[in-house]
DNA sequence: TAAAAAATTGCAAACGATTGCATTTTATTC
DNA sequence: GAATAAAATGCAATCGTTTGCAATTTTTTA
């Protein structure tokens, strides 16, 4: 069916009876070429199922129109493949990138070699890097940024950095989650999450601020330093209740997944939600409204997040100034709180 | 800091005092080059942070070492960004591909132009295509396959096709889910899912087979033709109960997401699970064991799925014969059934 | 120690598109 | 109708690697 000689731009030009330069320009609708000629060549290209060789084009133009998206996981957590929020963000990034004419090369921090700048940019695999998550240390990110490549990170916008960071308002989120519980009468609120992680630390600060405003001192043991998975949350809660009994009446979780783990533990012990313990999650994953009781949570606008990240990256391509960007955050009240 | 002249292979060779050919071979550990020379050049490359220009390499070798993964969504459903199962599969594919030295270019059927063979392969953007989902029509897939490019599809393995299909044993899955409910005494079992979709149709066949074995005739209205999202499941169940009352005592769902939607509707009407109605889901997403009651479901081994898909693709590169592959499927019994 | 064999290295031609500049064609002006 | 300006097209170098083959160096053999 096809075959013969491989269809290159040169061959297409030959078929059209023009030079490769003309063909090249015609295909990208360059007004240098007469309109009729352009249209004729474009039609011919479609007819013959022609498409430009990306490798050659990239080599020549030094542009790939590919962006590497790196899921920067926290080591030894299987957050990645499990966390719906992150994956949702990847999906949104795909949309946002495509809308701007870019493609998405997916990687995660375990796979990609350690020297991102080198591996992705200098090697012309991609034009820029979007990192999802700061991890526990920003070492690799800093290394990459230092070599001056275009890069944007999803994470805690209050971190000092030489690259733009896009993130939710974690302080506000933590604050509102906590405040809402306090308003509903909770007095002993647990904070579930790893405060070594920058974003979570901000949320913890919000938690503390809310307590301060209500003149309540959080119990000393009220911060549960756990991984971000539902499993560890479940285990932690089980153990905690076993040891201390029900010495709390509210929980602020750093993710909906964590909240789900906690809820499971509580339910198994017949703790009433929200009657005995009110719970607030974070992220508003699709399941938040499906579980019973539906989950009060802090929503982060992922679509906006993706668009902002892409914007900030494109700014770097164009040499425009970049800034940290804060994504909308809102409290979604459902049934897991009174 | 860096700069000077851009570091190319030629420049590196110059620094090492050898020709580019030697440098090229040395970097890929070609035994043609003396061992000491190889090591010297490799060390130099590391020292100078050198990495091969992928565009040039791809142009020359006609290999990209990139695989396009296409989320082939069902139109006007937002299954994609929502369905944890599909996203999990993407994650696993990423691992499996990386393990074989390939990278993953993510696309979805809304984005990618319609002519996949053209856009991805002929243009040298990727070496092969992995399609996740058959959609409602296999039109685009068939078109791509017809032009003889390497392609593997996740879907219903009983579909006749010119390309290898990897999928779960949907017939068995549907059968086991149903049989289990019947064994527990259910007599009026609903099937929730779109039977126009090939995979779901197979599951429905399994559902029918189980009924036949138990000499039970499923009620005429017992197949709810709904989209694969939890939202439509929720709406459907709500409406159905309103109209018909509780004229069933079991539900077989085509996904855990659908099951969650159904459970939500039932709970809101204080229907007991599993006392009044037993429910079986499909996929075993992480949340299945976190909700209350935890969800009995059919697990599909996603890791195996990813590996098989990649295998079948590599076979095509090597000209080896390919075959449809069936992934392990198992019933996970939890608390949503008696 | 010279010839033959084996081990290393280098030359130069691809791979296929893009683009500054030169050239040709067409339109405009006096 | 010749001179000039404007529009359209083509030439040829370039992007950075890879690799068949030729050339060189080293080792082995007689």
Outline the secondary-structure elements:
The structure is a homodimer of 338-residue chains.
Chain A: H1 9-16, H2 20-27, H3 35-47, H4 54-61, E1 66-71, H5 79-82, H6 84-99, E2 103-108, H7 116-122, E3 128-132, H8 139-146, E4 151-154, E5 165-168, H9 170-183, E6 189-192, H10 198-213, E7 223-224, H11 230-244, E8 250-253, H12 256-268, E9 278-283, E10 296-300, H13 302-317, E11 325-327, E12 329-332
Parallel strand pairs in A: 1-2, 1-3, 3-4, 4-5, 5-11, 6-7, 6-8, 8-9, 9-10
Antiparallel strand pairs in A: 10-12
Helix pairs in contact in A: 1-2, 1-3, 2-3, 6-13, 9-10, 11-12
Chain A binds a DNA duplex (30 and 30 nucleotides) through helix 2 and helix 4.
Structure in words:
The structure is a homodimer of 338-residue chains. Chain A is an alpha/beta fold and 338 residues long. The first copy, chain A, has 3 domains: 9-52, no CATH class; 66-168 and 302-327, 3-Layer(aba) Sandwich (Rossmann fold); 170-300, 3-Layer(aba) Sandwich (Rossmann fold). In chain A, 43% of the residues lie in helices and 16% in strands. Chain A is built from 13 helices and 12 strands. Chain A has helices spanning 9-16, 20-27, 35-47, 54-61, 79-82, 84-99, 116-122, 139-146, 170-183, 198-213, 230-244, 256-268, 302-317; strands spanning 66-71, 103-108, 128-132, 151-154, 165-168, 189-192, 223-224, 250-253, 278-283, 296-300, 325-327, 329-332. In chain A, the strands form 2 sheets. The first copy, chain A, has a 6-stranded parallel sheet with strand order 2-1-3-4-5-11, sandwiched between helices. In chain A, helix 9 (170-183) packs parallel to helix 10. The first copy, chain A, is elongated and about 85 Å long. The termini of chain A are far apart. The relative contact order of chain A is 0.11. The mean pLDDT of chain A is 92. Chains A and B meet through helix 4, helix 5, helix 6, strand 2 and helix 7 of A and helix 4, helix 5, helix 6, strand 2 and helix 7 of B. Chain A binds a DNA duplex (30 and 30 nucleotides) through helix 2 and helix 4.
């Amino acid at each position: 069916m096809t075959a013969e000689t491989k269809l290159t731009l040169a061959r297409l030009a030959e078929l059209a009876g023009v030079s490769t330069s003309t063909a090249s320009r015609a295909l990208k609708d360059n007004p240098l070429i007469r309109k009729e000629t352009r249209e004729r060549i474009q039609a011919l290209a479609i007819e013959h199922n022609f498409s430009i060789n990306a490798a050659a084009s990239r080599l020549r133009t030094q542009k790939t129109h590919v962006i590497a998206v790196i899921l920067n996981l926290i080591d030894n957590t299987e957050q990645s493949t499990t966390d719906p929020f992150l994956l949702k963000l990847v999906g949104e990034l795909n949309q946002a990138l495509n809308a701007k004419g870019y493609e998405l090369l997916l990687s995660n921090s375990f796979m990609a070699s350690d020297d991102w700048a080198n591996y992705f940019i200098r090697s012309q695999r991609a034009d820029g890097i979007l990192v999802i998550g700061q991890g526990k240390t920003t070492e690799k990110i800093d290394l990459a940024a230092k070599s001056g490549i275009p890069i944007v990170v999803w994470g805690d916008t209050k971190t000092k950095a030489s690259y733009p960071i896009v993130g939710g308002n974690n302080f506000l989120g933590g604050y509102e989650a906590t405040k809402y519980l306090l308003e509903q009468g909770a007095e002993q609120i647990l904070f579930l999450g790893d405060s070594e992680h920058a974003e979570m630390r901000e949320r913890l600060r919000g938690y503390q601020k809310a307590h301060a405003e209500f003149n309540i001192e959080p119990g000393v043991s009220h911060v549960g330093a756990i991984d971000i998975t539902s499993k560890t949350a479940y285990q932690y809660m089980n153990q905690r209740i076993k040891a201390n009994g029900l010495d709390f009446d509210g929980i602020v979780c750093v993710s909906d997944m964590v909240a789900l783990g906690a809820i499971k533990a509580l339910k198994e012990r017949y703790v009433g939600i929200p009657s005995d313990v009110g719970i607030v999650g974070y992220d508003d994953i699709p399941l938040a409204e499906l579980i019973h009781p539906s989950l009060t949570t802090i929503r982060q606008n992922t679509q906006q997040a993706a668009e902002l990240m892409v914007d900030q990256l494109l700014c770097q391509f164009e040499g425009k100034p970049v800034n940290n960007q804060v994504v909308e955050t809102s409290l979604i009240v459902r049934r897991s709180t009174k």
